[in-house]
Amino acid sequence: MASPLEQFQIKPIVPLGRIGGSEIAFTNSSLFMLLVVGAIGLFFMAATSQRSLVPGRMQAFAEMLYEFVAGTLKSAAGKEGMQFFPLVFSLFLFVLTANFMGMIPGAFTVTSQIIVTFALALLVFLTVIGVGLAKHGTHFFGLFVPQGAPAWLVPFLVVIEVISFLSRPISLSMRLFANMLAGHIALKVFAGFVVSLGALGVGGILGATLPLGMIVALTALEFLVAFLQAYVFTILTCVYLNDALHPGH
Amino acid sequence: MATPQTAGTEAHGGAHDNLGFPPFKTETFASQILWLAIFFGLLYWLVSKVFAPRLTDVIEGRASRIARDLDDAAAARTRAEEAGVAYEKALAEARARAQSIAQARRDEVNAGVESRRKALEGDLSAKLAAAEAQISATKASAMGNVQAIAADAAAAIVERLGGVAPSAGDLDAALKSALKA
Fold it and tell me: Per the count of CB atoms within 10 A, which of A54, A65, A210, B47 is most buried?
């Protein structure tokens, strides 16, 4: 029986050669990134092709997603935050679709790869620093100085703020990665129980209904987690972008 | 709860699979970052150049359309209210004019009736006067006839008593004095 970790294995499909000692290949991970982007692209192409005043089902759903992300972005970063809308919307759609696509049995979960979530988190982090410095120059570093704190406390607070700022990409990527990883491992482990108990005869089959019930419950939970983690990733991105726009807070 | 099992199967899987925890295998990182950059870049391009503008257009278009329709509705309502006021005014004017016309007509009719009544009364009084004149003329002629009859009767009585017919002059004088008494 396959290990619960086998589902996270990167398997090359089309080897493409090496760049600086690293193997470059079109892998199952790349395939599912393509499927995720392809699914989003096809859905939105179809949903926004009519652009009718009274939307159909697909357009209504696309508009719902738009309004949801736009509302989140506006409430966290204000109206100026809308300049980052394409980035935030892309992140939300990519993470959400990757999470949900990972729920298809046998599918690869792109967001269960730490390097993928870390790259996305780093993109947000660098965007915040880049935009913050471009917009506010050195005032951007006012972000690290809490207002209204006693003067003797400020150096300590600045150190804490800097550490918390630098740990953002790590916490942002870890949260998503760990949630997807743990959920998929748990599902696989309980599925393994069902198979091994089922092989033990009648008593084993009866005993196997217990972990089977757990799988059903966990699957429902994982669907919730898949959405929730996409949302958490999005809202934290919005909060961090707000720092780039309004570092005085 | 799953930790011992996971550890066991990991060790087991690790024995004949590639060693290590798959997501932490650094040799796959370069390839994954490259493909992520390509596909996420493509998604970003699609969202920023195609999907977001399309959705913004349709949502803002709808919002402005709704705002315009609401404005139109408010204007139409104002117009309707103005029309209502104008209608009320016209109705009041028409009613006033109808009343004045009815009053004039009534006055006219009353005046006509009055004049006809007066004409009729004049006519009637003229007829009355004529009738009275005729009555007095008839009465006078009747009185004349009475005198003649009285003269004839008196002459016959005198002739029967006296045997002599009185002269017309005596008779006339006697009758006049008798009628005067």
Answer: B47
Radius of gyration of chain B (CA): 68
How far does A35 lie from chain B, in Å, by closest CA? 10
**Number of continuous H segments (helices) and E segments (strands) in chain A:** 7, 2
Q: Measured between alpha carbons, how far is A39 from A53 in angstroms, rounded to an integer? A: 25
Buried b (16+ CB within 10 A) or exposed e, A107-133: bbbbbbbbbbbbbbbbbbbebbeebbe
Residues 36-95 of B with CB under 8 A from A: 36-37, 39-40, 42-44, 46-48, 50-52, 54-59, 61-62, 65
Q: What is the 3-state composition of chain B as percent helix, strand, coil, each rounded to the nearest 5?
A: 90, 0, 10
**CA Rg, chain A, in Å?**
22
Lowest mean pLDDT among A60-69, B1-10, B62-71, B93-102: B1-10
Predicted confidence band of residue B15 (pLDDT cuts 50, 70, 90): very low
Chain B residue numbers with beta carbons less than 8 Å from the beta carbon of A27 are 28, 31-32, 35
Full-prediction pTM beyond 0.90? Answer: no
Q: Which residues contact B134 (CB under 8 A, 6 or more apart)?
A: none
The proportion of chain B whose per-residue pLDDT surpasses 70, expressed as a percent, equals 89
Q: Which residues fall within 8 angstroms of residue B129, CB to CB, at 6 or more apart?
A: none
CA A94 – CA B45 distance, rounded (Å)? 13
**Which sequence spans correspond to the domains of chain B?**
40-180
Chain A CB contacts of B52 under 8 Å are 66, 85-86, 89
Percent of chain A with pLDDT over 90: 64
Whether A97 has its CB under 8 Å from any CB of chain B: the answer is: no
Q: Measured between CA atoms, how close is B39 to chain A, in angstroms? A: 6
Give the closest residue to A53 by CA, choosing from B66, B64, B58: B58
Residues of B in contact with A114 (CB under 8 A): 23-24
Sorted by where each begins, the domain ranges of chain A are 6-245
* Beta carbons within 10 angstroms of residue A98's beta carbon: 30
Residues 163-182 of A with CB under 8 A from B: 177, 181
